[in-house]
Write a structure and sequence with these properties.
5 strands, Beta-Lactamase, 119 residues, 5-stranded antiparallel sheet, alpha+beta
């Protein structure tokens, strides 16, 4: 278990979206700077090494527990404190073996273009 996010490259650490990575049992391995800030009230970097399930109330906790077992992605949008976000939770793999989940939280602008690129 890392003490710091030393395994993440600088561009990931500074990406303006929250990135949290956990192992297959739900133990938080890494958080980038935006994730640390987003979860500051819950402990920030102190969350590294703890179980991500403890950070989620029901029914999200049960859903995340099922995702950890099944290894299936979960993608949705939320609005919190007047800000819209895209939440992308996806399994990640190490040498082809399921290794856990990554959550990417992207803040969405009030209006966003949508392009259909069928050719």
């Amino acid at each position: 278990m890392p003490e710091k996010n030393i395994a993440l490259p600088d561009w990931v650490m500074e990406l303006p979206s929250a990135i949290t990575v956990c192992d297959a049992k739900g133990i938080i391995l890494y958080m980038n700077e935006h994730s640390i800030k987003a979860f500051e009230a819950d402990g920030g970097t102190a969350l590294i090494g703890t179980n991500v399930l403890n950070c989620h109330p029901e029914p999200a906790r049960s859903q995340l527990d099922t995702m950890l077992l099944d290894g299936k992605a979960n993608i949705y949008t939320i609005e919190k404190k007047g800000k819209r976000k895209l939440i992308y939770q996806s399994p990640w793999y190490q040498k082809g073996t399921y290794a856990g989940f990554v959550e990417i939280s992207i803040e969405l602008p009030d209006s966003m273009p949508h392009f259909v690129r069928d050719m």
